[in-house]
Design goal:
Chain lengths: ~130, ~130
DNA sequence: TCATGAACAGTAACCATTACCAATAAACAA
DNA sequence: TTGTTTATTGGTAATGGTTACTGTTCATGA
């Protein structure tokens, strides 16, 4: 990971990052907690939250702020797009990114537009089979 | 508003809808509460939440689920796009919608993609002048 | 005008997240 | 290797947005 002055590579931070990179499920903080606890049973939930924030800030992981009551995290920082299940909130990766059109002309009164992205919505298989 | 069987047009629901239509600020539930309380001082916050959900479900208003800790609401249901200030969460309208590219070919393993939209991020003037 | 039950006000509960603090352990110098 | 510094931890309490509950009220159709 990107080492910065005054940040220490703790075992907890290391394991969180590893677990997140080993998985494609875009887990919530709570789910990360469950994963990490299998290797570090005494880790606290606060530590997980703190490290997820730090890792997102340093750019080692992605924090998916898109809709839903819980935030989700992604160990894959290469550019790609996401679908979110409108029923359960689960997030998946879109295979071939749809090209974002030129947004340089976009204007919004009272705002400076910095970026834009495409957000997909849909239904995951688990939810689809329930209906 | 779209009248449905077994839903009653209460004064509270009416005022919430009116206030939301009179404003372009995409308020949070709490801000709607503040606005409505000037006309109905005894309304409860729970009533505001309940009606915002019902109005969104009936399509009379928009619930902006996009990132941020608080949900925001929009009385303008004609198709348009939004910018969100990454610092304060404020939401603004994009003037001329950027055309969403064809997403019919988008694939995501384990998901059925139903829709896509462009989300803008930026900084609002209030936050920009603070820096 | 009356009867019915959807919706209300007020309040408690919920849940994801953040803050706090004494104890621990990375990182670096000696 | 040992000691010092202080970022980070575990455990827990607090926060804040939202939802659920309950007895009361009032919109609606007969």
């Amino acid at each position: 990971m990107t080492q910065q002055q005054q940040t220490r590579m703790t075992k907890q931070r290391m394991v969180i990052l590893e677990e997140l990179r080993n998985v494609h499920s875009h887990p919530t903080a709570d789910e990360v907690y469950g994963m990490v606890r299998q290797r570090l049973p005494r880790i606290s939930l606060g530590t997980v939250y703190r490290n997820l924030d730090l890792l997102a800030e340093s750019g080692d992981i992605l924090k998916l702020e898109s809709a839903g009551s819980q935030k989700r995290f992604d160990g894959n920082v290469t550019p790609h797009q996401h679908v979110r299940c409108t029923q359960c909130g689960r997030v998946g990766d879109v295979m071939d990114p749809v090209l974002l059109p030129d947004i340089s002309g976009a204007r919004a009164p009272g705002f400076i537009i910095l970026s834009g992205r495409i957000e997909f919505e849909g239904v995951c298989e688990a939810c689809a089979s329930k209906n």
